[in-house]
Amino acid sequence: MNVIHPTAVIDPGAQLGDHIQVGPLCYIGPKVFLGDGCRLLHNVSICGKTIIGQRNEFYPGCAIGESPQDLKYKGTDTDLFIGDDNVFREQVTIHPGTEVGGGVTRIGHHNRILIGVHIAHDVMMGSNCVITNAVQVAGHCYIEDRCHIGGMSGLQSFVTVGRHAYVAAMSRITVDVPPYLVVHGYDLEVRGVNEKGLKSRWCFTDEQVKQLWAAYKVLFGRNGSTKMAISQRVALLEEKGPHGEHVQYLLESVRRSVLYGVYGRYLESMRRDTPDDRRRFYEESK
């Protein structure tokens, strides 16, 4: 049985599962699917072509599924998919995809998205992430599983944050963040291995963490290898292989960003829009 407050507005076209709670002054649009056990507190808006899984919680002021802010968006019915068991705190905004970006924004499972977070068009987010207050995620970013992003950080378009990474508060993320590591700062610096998170939260063994520290020292540590270009350090670490699963993933991620990325952002090399697309917008706006 669903519990719907009499002041809530639910379009007849919306599809609602079972055991859903909808609080005062909420709005659910005609193309929304809301899975079993979801809970909307007061003043929540969910619209657009938005598919939401089970047991998600939306706190007051959330605006989910509104049109993308990308200047090239042409008004197509693009998609927003949200998995299960996520918590969206007050004033979270999430936009669907754009035509040139693949048309999909996707959020995984068991994430906690805290107050004032913005997740823009075409973002892909994994599961078990914590995105803390006022983080701003630009379009086309990829946040892998089990990441922690500190408050008031900003992610530039096409950035990847690798799995198990820890981004300290008030960081400016303009390049890819390597998995398993800690980064911080306006001019982003790699500070070490996310040892506390890996051991206490995700049950990494001492040996696995030790291997990651050894790889970190070759790639980013303050020893002789840092006099080499990053591409040379990647090659040096490859020569020391074979490596375990996690070191190998770290190595592959850094290689993609450095050797195949644009300005340190691998996804930038895969963007679908062209200079002509951007030029056309400005010409039509004259």
What do these coordinates show?
Helix content is 20%, strand content 23%. It has five helices and 28 strands. It has an eleven-stranded mixed β-sheet with strand order 1-4-7-10-13-16-19-22-25-27-28. A nine-stranded parallel β-sheet has the order 2-5-8-11-14-17-20-23-26, with no helix packed on it. Helix 2 packs parallel to helix 4 and helix 3 (230-239) runs antiparallel to helix 4. The radius of gyration is 21 Å and the shape is globular. The protein starts with a strand and ends with a helix.
Task: Name its key features.
286 residues, alpha/beta, UDP N-Acetylglucosamine Acyltransferase, domain 1, eleven-stranded mixed sheet, 5 helices, globular
Short note summarizing the structure:
20% of the residues lie in helices and 23% in strands.
Helical amount: 10-25%
Estimated radius of gyration:
21 Å
Strand content: 15-25%
CATH H level, superfamily name of the domain at 67-203? Hexapeptide repeat proteins
Instruction: Going across the biggest sheet, name each strand in turn.
Output: 1-4-7-10-13-16-19-22-25-27-28
Low-confidence stretches: none
Fold-level CATH name of the domain at 67-203: UDP N-Acetylglucosamine Acyltransferase, domain 1
Q: Output the number of helix runs.
A: 5
> What would the average pLDDT be, to the nearest integer?
95
Task: Supply the helix-strand structural class.
Answer: alpha/beta
Shape: globular
